Amino acid sequence: MAKYTLPELPYDYAALEPSISGKIMELHHSKHHQAYVTGANTALEQLAEARESGNLANVNKLEKDLAFNLGGHVNHSIFWTNLAPAGNGGGGEPEGELRAAIDEFFGGFDKFQAHFTAAATGIQGSGWAVLSWDPIGAQLIIQQLFDQQSNTAQGTVPIFQLDMWEHAFYLDYLNVKADYVKAAWNIANWANVAQRFETAREKTSGLLVLS
Ligand code: MN
Fold it and tell me: What's the predicted TM-score (pTM) here?
């Protein structure tokens, strides 16, 4: 059975300061993300045990555990690579085909940022703001991801996502979510997003057949 593992960060914990403090990054990566990895492995192990024993009474709980924890692992793994130190891969504006797509589907980078920011700061409870490739509509969309696994459509591919759980910003920004989102633009790694965009478009063409 596959074992999920905690990925190394591509930069030091303090590298995203002042947008995100080293203390948050260390806790977020070594404690929170690690807990999702452990939880996903545990859920898979318990599902295997349930199949083996034939006692599937806990299947609802275990499937929910799997979705939540594997969701957390995927979300954070993408999130870390979506970021880079300001001025050293982070910040600025998207270029090339990604920029053209953002302009096409959102009416410009400013309008995209305003929409994404509103989605991020407006999340009710814990969740993420996500820029996704929708292979059905062949378009970019913004989604609000609740918790680690809810309120997004199957098959959409996340290319840029911002953690809006309080553990992601509260030590630095208290309740002022808008300042956290504003600071996040300074560390957005648009080259990584562009790479994910290109891969998503290429690999998902024809993947979802609805009729
Ligand atoms: Mn998180």
Answer: 0.96
